[in-house]
Amino acid sequence: xxxxxxxxxxxxxxxxxxxxxxxxxxxxxxxxxxxxxxxxxxxxxxxxxxxxxxxxxxxxxxxxxxxxxxxxxxxxxxxxxxxxxxxxxxxxxxxxxxxxxxxxxxxxxxxxxxxxxxxxxxxxxxxxxxxxxxxxxxxxxxxxxxxxxxxxxxxxxxxxxxxxxxxxxxxxxxxxxxxxxxxxxxxxxxxxxxxxxxxxxxxxxxxxxxxxxxxxxxxxxxxxxxxxxxxxxxxxxxxxxxxxxxxxxxxxxxxxxxxxxxxxxxxxxxxxxxxxxxxxxxxxxxxxxxxxxxxxxxxxxxxxxxxxxxxxxxxxxxxxxxxxxxxxxxxxxxxxxxxxxxxxxxxxxxxxxxxxxxxxxxxxxxxxxxxxxxxxxxxxxxxxxxxxxxxxxxxxxxxxxxxxxxxxxxxxxxxxxxxxxxxxxxxx
Length: 428
Known about the structure:
With about 425 residues, this protein is an alpha/beta fold. The chain has two domains: about 100-230, 3-Layer(aba) Sandwich (Rossmann fold), CATH 3.40.50; about 255-425, Rossmann fold, CATH 3.40.50. Helices cover about 45% and strands about 15% of the residues. It has a seven-stranded mixed β-sheet, sandwiched between helices. Strands 9-8-10-11-12 form a five-stranded parallel β-sheet, with helices on both faces. Residues about 1-5, about 15-75 and about 85-90 have low confidence and may be disordered. It comes from Camelus dromedarius.
């Protein structure tokens, strides 16, 4: 009986120990196992979606790798749309202008500015039209140009803040008319309808331009910049600049398209002079020198005793042909050293031979330049031939006879290059 009790107690103690061990195991190790189990279940729950997503990607990849017969067209269309969008963006950017300038052309040199320098067009094309206008964009500046007899002060709208007024101040009658325009512009400035005004002036050939002094801003006026033709002593390259005379647009001298044929093609005449010969002038001396040694037979020479303000169609064609077919164009001084012939010869690829002498009047050197006359051309290193006396001409012609084809090509290239530089400089 005691043995049975003893065995029973041992069994209970063993059972208690086992229970204690189980309880201890459950307390210390049971939660740690459940946490990984929960994580594992979570992973198992997420395993199917993961496989689904991976399978979806694999299917997408597979589908993308399948051949698409419209793929090239789709890519081309996308590129076209992108290109079109960029073009629209570029156009919208290029179309923006920072400055609007209106040019009022009330002198013939205005056509030289617009048609020969800006290479702008005018509507209508009829040169006798009462009103002509044009538009041009240079860089980020928009220019509009109006000209003609119908352009009268107060009879057209002014919708810009910046104006360039082109005037003729060569004679008293022209000065009276130009003054009216300046008084009209002054009223616009005073009423704040206009902010900035520049004037391009065909000045007096003797440089007697005192009448415009009162309108200059430096003297209490409103004209901020003055561009003046001929060697005025006022020129300082700060607010008064020299402007080239240009070609005779009032005689309908056309725009000549520069081409390499002007340089390459051989010209049949050594030189040319078509113009008026006045008594006791250097032009008369020029004609006498040309007759010496038979040089007049090598040159296209046609003289007249009286000046004609307008050319006939025949005389204009003969003059242009002479310029285009001669290596040199003889440019004797007139009332002023600077003459239209210089620029007309240059535009036709014929080298001007310029009589480099001062004429009567107030023209001369300035504080900025000391090489008058023709200081603008000289400052730009114009590839012209400058002579002080026509007695130098025979030696020049003899030298020109010996110039090789390469030398002629080089001279012509320099001349066309200078013409381009002159246009760019005046456009700026």
